[in-house]
Amino acid sequence: EAAQKDGYDTFMLKEIYEQPHVIQETLRGRIIEDKIVLDELQDIDFKDYNKVYFVACGTAYHATLCGSQVLERTTKLPVNTMVASEFRYNDPLIDKHTLAIFVSQSGETADTLAALRLAKEKGATTIAIANVLGSTISRDADYVLYTCAGPEIAVASTKAYTTQLVLLILLAYYVAQVLEKNIDHELIDQLNTIPQYVENILNDHAIFENYAKMLENLHDAYFIGRSLDYASVLEGALKLKEVSYVHADAYVAGELKHGPIALIEEGSVVIAVATQPHIAAKTMSNIQETIARGANVILLTTHGEEVKNVENTYYLPDVSPTLQSILVAIPLQFIAYYTACIKGCDVDKPRNLAKSVTVE
Ligand code: G6P
Question: Cβ(110) to ligand 1 under 6 A?
Fold first, then answer.
């Protein structure tokens, strides 16, 4: 096992550091000049569809929350994003004009597989995004796209998540391209630079290790974000609770005043993500509301945003806001990882959790 860890203390850490490489692998051959190439889907006539469902569980669900927003914006097709265990029991409105996309690292999650079968029965065209070659989901779906993350051993998903984000963004832009929508070619260009940016963020690990010290003696942590940043904070909070057992919740920043702010007191830690320029100023003002009530804030944002009174601010590289979802995952993974290490938790095998949930 030590040999498999390649000199890292844990599989989770090894997998965090593999991200530049596996993102590169997931992009390989899929961007040619400024065109997205997904030959696996060339037989689909996207004009036949009037709505899209995204379905997944756990971390993969958080990836779909980002991917579905991007697809809706680029293609103008209405999207629905659902946790698989809800989808299968809620009589989803599906017919032959529905495209249903299922995301699963293992390709074996029972609820996601059952949801896929239901969508097929109701006539949808199904696409699986999977990591494990030949997994059940990849055999059952009409079409399959693979993330190229390689084997993910740690229970807490890291590299599978970021490669899912990359592939979902590629998919959104691919569909837009086929439907002849206006496309942000700069974003497609920037996708190729993401592995290098991820590498740069990995080199800042000591900063996030310091942030983790703020969480060591706390029972609760609060994550806030808006728009795509909300998907990111949901995943950040899940990562923290999975590996460090710190109770963490993620809130749409605009909802703070409708309840969660009642919990903020002297010494609370708020982890805020504000990478979306059209809405960052609003999140900044929510941050001030928590500071006024005694919170210590960790802020992950981009240059150009006006930041006041936040000592612990990390600036992400300057790329398209859509791609920040990939980059901001890295600091959030590190914060969870180091918090778990400081607390002496078994990072790779958190209590009560399984890598793949093959029972309902
Ligand atoms: C389990 C794992 C999570 C994972 C989820 C969905 O809960 O612990 O890390 O996100 O299942 O798994 P899948 O293989 O379908 O992506």
Answer: no
**What are the residue numbers of the active site?**
355
Do 154 and 10 contact (CB within 8 A), yes or no? yes
Cα gap 263→56, rounded to integer Å: 30
Is the CB of 349 inside a 6 Å radius of any atom of ligand 1? no
Q: Could you read off the pLDDT of 234-265 as tens digits, one per residue?
A: 999 999 999 999 999 999 999 999 999 999 99
Best mutation site among 11, 16, 59 for ligand 1 pocket (most ligand atoms within 8 Å of CB): 59
150: left (phi over 0), alpha (psi -120 to 50) or beta: left
- How far is Cα 53 from Cα 39, in angstroms, rounded to an integer? 21
Cα–Cα dist 171/179, whole Å: 12
**Is the Cβ atom of 133 under 6 angstroms away from ligand 1?**
no
Looking at residue 341, its pLDDT comes to 97
Helices (H), 203-320: 205-213, 228-244, 277-292
Q: From the CA of 102, how far away is ligand 1's center (Å)?
A: 13
73-87, 215-229, 298-312: least confident range: 298-312
ipTM of the complex: 0.98
Residue 166 CB coordination number (10 Å): 29
**pTM for the model:** 0.97
